[in-house]
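U., I forgot to send this yesterday:
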Amino acid sequence: MTTLRRLPWVLSSLDDPRESVGFVGPNWYASVMGTGIVAIAATTLPILGSDLHVFAEVVWVVAVLLLVGVTGAVTAHWLRHPQVARGHARDPNMAQFYGAPPMALMTVGAGTLLVGTSLIGTSVAVTLDWVLWSAGTLGGLLTAVCIPFLLFTRYEVRPDAAFGGWLMPVVPPWSPPPPARCSSRTSPAPRAARRCSTGATRCSA
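Result:
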């Protein structure tokens, strides 16, 4: 039992390993965003896209596991450390990262439709993408309105405090839907002569 409590080693300095969730914030969802976009990029590259599909599947699975794990950790954080969690919303820097959860949901959702269909089936993938994309869009609209409003009305911000994170809350509502995938199995036209537009619903020769 003592050995188990010392694993992983990062938690060994804590009196109670469960206290590790006290350090979880909305910025953790940025790891889900970054992982998910790698899977999407790998499967939509105009060159080597089909050859990277297995790699994209592995990365997408990792992104799904990260999304589940981070969401569980954030939920535990709010339950065990509500004052710290509310403090994140009051911090003018950390609050910007509330745009990360909606982006994480939509990134994994897009990957589900583009990559996950071969693993979980088209019907399940479409349903899961619809749920993730809808939740991400609603969350993104909320952060795009609330965070800038608080930034200009409640938060104390110095003139030199502007940084790239201010873009995080307003990005989710502008995210396009998953691009259509062009495949030689669905069209006899040569690959070089076909094109696929981002956000399109069909491929054209």
